[in-house]
Structures are given as structure tokens and as C-alpha cells.
Amino acid sequence: MLKPDYKNSIVAFVNVLLSKFKSEVIHEEFNDMKDLLAPELEGADKIIVLIIDSLGYNKFLTLNEKLKFEKYYKLSSVFPTTTVSAITSYMTGLTPQEHGLLGYIQFLRELGTILNMIDFSYPGMSSTSFDTLIKRKIKRLPNVFQKIKKEGYYAGILTGSNIANSGLSFLIQKDANVLTYYTLGDMFATISKLFQKEFKGLVYVYYGMLDGLGHKKGPDSYSYETEAEYILRELKRIIELQKGKNTRVFITADHGMVQIPRNKNVFLGDELRKFLRIPPTGEMRMMYLYTKVGKKQQLVDYFNDNFKNRFELISSKEALAEGYFGIGKLHPETLNRIGDLVLVTKENYAFTYLYTGGEDKLEGMHGALTEEELYVPLIVL
């Protein structure tokens, strides 16, 4: 099982950007990344970071045989390899164990329930139920935007209008200058305007629809690859045409994705209740398991007897001690959010827990620690 390399990760990249703007840096120890990017950042006072959700490094290499990007690096994502954790690391410069957003489905002790952390809903149900309550109970995280603006620079994000006010956005984008787009063409047009706008600072651009397409049709589908190639080709054209001499652009991603055959996705439900205190949380390829007293070994035996060679199980505290969730001071709720055991799937296997019975049968998934999920490109333009 691979492990994130936080010294050469998206977290290290963000901390280097903070140091570029003379902002408070969370992690001073990422010197290799600082040395690597120093030539790229020299003379640049406008930095634009384009994040394409679910564009893995290996997938990028295949597409780049046609696209011919000349300068790029291989970055590690975080664990788990999922949007909630990785995008939060981009927005805060913190590792997952520091920011405490550790999966798509998460147990919040503060509310005594599990929630979808994208839209603050119970898995499979309306997003209106918990939104107001959570915004009162959960502390918003200090972020990159605040740190950069404190030093007198511009700091913003361009994101889809449909997610600009989501629960996750609320938690991680406080005080950012938020710009929105409605369609892909609108996003390209707004990026062009950013190049023309006079400012010194940092702007993130987040594109999430490739991730949605990958979930529905899989990252190996013709549709996914066509979409990814078109986005990268058009971004390359716009950037090369309009980028100013004091502007540096990076194209990157939060994590990659794995194609999951239907016969390798196991649906789980009531049979786990005798072992667990609450339903599994996390992801379809990475679950946090909260075991009942005296039931831990029985749960391990159940998975080994029924699904041998499809997964690895590790003590949650051991995963924490070994650095899977990062470095730095623990968020006050991290230990409460990772359960007793962490189940990480191998190869292209998955487990879908039936919270409501109406869960989608997804073709593409992420969250685990394969090379396809863990590594992302950092393209320099």
C-alpha cells in the first residue's frame, strides 16, 4: 500500500505559494518543494492555480502524448484521496490530520450523526436538513485567502455557481473573493478576464465536472478522456495566448480516479450492524469502521472470510502514527473522525455501503492509495 509523500505533495505546493506572498507558512520543512519551484515563481506576482478534480498523473501522461505540455511535475495527493480532504488542503495549506476533514461521509461528534461533507446532508437525503445547524456548530477553518490578504495581496477563487455556497465551500473559503461560472465556456471566458485584470496575488480556479463524469462513466471511458483532453487543450491555448510576463499558471488536481468494474463493487448493508456502532464513513474505497466493544476481531474475520485480497485493514491510530493523514498538530476532532479501523481497498475493488438503498452504481471511484489515485500532475505554464 502506497503512502502519501507530504514533502512532495499538494500541501507542500500550497505552503510554497504562501511563502511566495510572505504569508504565515504552516510548514517550513518543505524545502525540496521550495527549491524546485523557486525558478518558476521568480518574478511572478500574479499566480493562477487551476485545479481539475480527479485528473490523475498517469491519466495526464497519456493525454499529454497529444497535448505536449513541456514542463510538469508529479505531486502526491493526501489521504484519503478525495475532494473533501484534498481541496481543503489546497485551501488551507494543512494536512488532513490538521484540518480534520477526512472523507466524503464523516461522523461529526458535535452533532452525533454522519454527514455528507460536501453539502451537509445525511447520505442520500436532502441537503436542507442540517445546513443551518452545522453552520452554527462547526468552526470554519483558517485558510490561504486570509493569510495572503493579510499581506496586502488579492486572494480569490473561481468556482462553479452550483457549488459556490456549498457546505464545504462555507467551511474552507471564508473571506475569499469568490467568482463564479455557469458553464465550461463561461469558465474559459472568466479565466481570460483574469489574465487581463491587474492584481498581485493568488487565484484558484476549480473545475469539478470531470470528477462527476468520471464517477458516472469511469476515468477510462471515452467520454472522460475526451473531456479531460478538451479542457487541457483549451486551457493551454488560452494561457499561452494571454498570460502576462509577471503571471505564472499551474494546472493541477486534487486526486486521481480508478475504473471500477461492476463485479468488483460489493454492496454492504445490514450485515455489518452486528459489528459496528455506527454505519461506515469515509469513501467507497476507504472506510472508517467504528466497531462495537469486543467485535473488532469478528469484523476483521468477516472481511477476511468473505472478501480476501480485496482490501487492507489497519488500526486507525496506527495509520495516524505512520503518517498517512499527514504531519502537524491534530485537529481536535481527528481521532473521533477516523473510527477504530481504516479499510483501504486494493486494485480496482470497492465497497458501497447502502445508507438508504438508493446509492448510485458508480463506474469511477477514489479514496484509496493506488498510484492512479494518489499522484496528480503539476503543470507549469
Automatic annotation (TrEMBL):
Superkingdom as given in the UniProt entry: Bacteria
Instruction: Mention any Pfam family matching this sequence.
Output: Phosphodiest
Any GO MF annotation of the entry: hydrolase activity
Q: What is this protein called?
A: Predicted pyrophosphatase or phosphodiesterase, AlkP superfamily
